[in-house]
């Protein structure tokens, strides 16, 4: 008779196989959709971040996008031999995403040493990444600016508006007010926009 842990491992194996091998993420989403939502809510409470329902949903969407992006790259890095269950690995992805999008844009010093150690190399973080990116975009050549402008026109309009506001030096709060969105939604859009722009410009 299988133990509850063995049954959990078997179930997670089937979920991973469906997502990675068959390209079907329905089981993964169905199994962890509510879990990710409530995990994000707990992180908001833990770090005293004001999150509306829309904000939590945006973060949950981003987390699933990261799990499934690049042919499930982050899920492929899960190694059961290290003693973690898949749900524990997903918790790592949730924490890294929350830290990357919310806390590092809020206050890098708000991370405790324990939180910093929680981060795995599966999702590299650079505190001043976006400031460096803004400086680079502002000082790029005319040719590169034209390429960037063309790339900007090919991403979703809401992403382009966020990037344009960001490049103009506007705060997240100002951009959010202009677009009628929450600050967290704007942070998430910016993160997705840079990712899409990077993919377009490097293709």
Task: Give a verbal description of the structure.
The structure is a single chain. The protein has 203 residues and is mostly helical. It has two domains: 4-118; 129-201, Winged helix-like DNA-binding domain superfamily/Winged helix DNA-binding domain (Arc Repressor Mutant, subunit A, Orthogonal Bundle). It has ten helices and no strands. The chain has helices at residues 4-21, 26-46, 53-76, 86-106, 113-118, 129-138, 142-152, 157-167, 172-179, 183-201. Helix 2 (26-46) crosses helix 3 (53-76), helix 8 (157-167) runs antiparallel to helix 9 and helix 9 packs across helix 10. The termini are far apart.
Structural class: mainly alpha
**What's the overall geometry?**
globular
Helical proportion, percent range: over 70%
Mean pLDDT: 79
Describe the oligomeric state of these chains in a short phrase: single chain
Q: What count of domains describes the coordinates?
A: 2
- Largest sheet data: none
Per DSSP, what share of the residues sits in E-state strands of 2 or more residues? under 5%
The N- and C-terminal alpha carbons lie at a distance of 52 Å
Count of helical regions: 10
Order of helices and strands: HHHHHHHHHH
Q: How big is the Rg?
A: 18 Å
Low confidence ranges = 106-129
Beta-strand segment tally: 0
């Amino acid at each position: 008779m299988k133990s509850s842990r063995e049954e959990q491992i078997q179930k997670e194996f089937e979920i991973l196989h469906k997502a990675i091998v068959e390209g079907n993420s329905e089981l993964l989403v169905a199994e962890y959709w509510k879990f990710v939502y409530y995990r994000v809510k707990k992180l908001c409470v833990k770090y005293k971040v004001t999150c509306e329902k829309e904000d939590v949903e945006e973060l949950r969407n981003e987390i699933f996008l990261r799990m499934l992006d690049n042919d499930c790259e982050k899920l492929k890095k899960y190694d059961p031999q290290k003693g973690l269950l898949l749900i524990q690995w997903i918790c790592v992805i949730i924490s890294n995403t929350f830290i990357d999008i919310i806390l590092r844009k809020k206050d890098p010093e708000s991370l405790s040493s324990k939180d910093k150690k929680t981060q795995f190399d599966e999702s590299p973080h650079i505190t001043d990444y976006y400031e460096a990116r803004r400086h680079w975009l502002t000082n790029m050549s005319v040719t590169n600016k034209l390429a960037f402008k063309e790339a900007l026109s090919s991403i979703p309009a809401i992403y382009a508006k966020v990037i344009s506001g960001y490049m103009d030096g506007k705060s997240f709060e100002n951009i959010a007010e202009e677009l009628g969105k929450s600050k967290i939604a704007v942070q998430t859009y910016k993160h997705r926009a840079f990712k899409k722009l990077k993919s377009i410009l490097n293709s």
